Amino acid sequence: xxxxxxxxxxxxxxxxxxxxxxxxxxxxxxxxxxxxxxxxxxxxxxxxxxxxxxxxxxxxxxxxxxxxxxxxxxxxxxxxxxxxxxxxxxxxxxxxxxxxxxxxxxxxxxxxxxxxxxxxxxxxxxxxxxxxxxxxxxxxxxxxxxxxxxxxxxxxxxxxxxxxxxxxxxxxxxxxxxxxxxxxxxxxxxxxxxxxxxxxxxxxxxxxxxxxxxxxxxxxxxxxxxxxxxxxxxxxxxxxxxxxxxxxxxxxxxxxxxxxxxxxxxxxxxxxxxxxxxxxxxxxxxxxxxxxxxxxxxxxxxxxxxxxxxxxxxxxxxxxxxxxxxxxxxxxxxxxxxxxxxxxxxxxxxxxxxxxxxxxxxxxxxxxxx
Length: 370
Ligand code: GYE
Description:
The chain is built from 13 helices and 15 strands. The protein has helices spanning 19-24, 31-39, 52-61, 71-74, 97-113, 126-138, 155-163, 191-206, 222-238, 254-267, 279-291, 308-315, 330-341; strands at residues 63-64, 68-69, 86-90, 117-121, 143-146, 168-171, 185-188, 210-216, 242-249, 273-276, 300-305, 321-324, 346-347, 349-351, 356-358. The longest helix has 17 residues, at 97-113. The protein is elongated. The two termini are 37 Å apart. Beta-D-fucofuranose (GYE) is lined by residues 92, 96, 98, 172-173, 223, 252, 278, 280, 304-305, 325.
């Protein structure tokens, strides 16, 4: 079966078509907890994924596709989430704050709702992740929340889940398959838009001219492809004076970002800008530049994620801007699961809202970073 990419042009984010967001405070039985938390929202800034105001904010700001899925269409029976064992499969090691915050958000939400949660972490090994998910199923998971490492290669798990009528919700990266057949909903950022926002920051930093390098994420997932696409298309359209002279993967790790930047400084010593497709690689790039005796701001660095350390690097002058990739998926994932279980329509793609940090707000918004 071929993948059905979500048509972002036809479904621009931030429209209130999200079945969850639109109905949460009106009609759904799950309204009580979510709406109570929504009212608390003004109470202060979100320090961590477990902060109720952060969770409520996520629900209020999300948007969804028009295409929806019900438990009847998916093939299965209604269920009560409170009595359902949920399996969560994390893809990468929890050394990256994105992963720490994502797992904490899922765990906090399960706890708040009294839902039994089984967890596994594949430590960036895709074969391990497939067997992790199979293990979660054999331990009794009746619904799966998967943060997939790769987008392809899920057939064995999809077939088994389909046979056993186990709904799958994927978060942060996409599983290539058919929505409402292979999985219920994909919850993630608009990654093309993140790339465009990063390009806008780079264009501004360089005054529209210069040589730029891209530290790519890992291959084999939609996040890397879409962050690259949004960035390169926007640069080509808006800044003909900017040349992309170097593209290499830093594998979404700090060490990778550092070693690729060390090579970059050798091959392109007069590089003007670095677009790092996540904060960990961007922080690695800062270490490499520092080691080569460069000064803060000499090379304009733009990154994606919104970790506390990256935003602190804006304050310190090393990073020009950070586009957030919001990992607080717990509220959306569990609201989607609950709505689905009670027979409601759930959007097959839910887009989480992302902040942006630069020198104008890095200091005042540091507490929102994770
Ligand atoms: O940006 C990065 C992680 O898939 C959105 O994966 C996620 C990305 C995130 O390695 O830090």
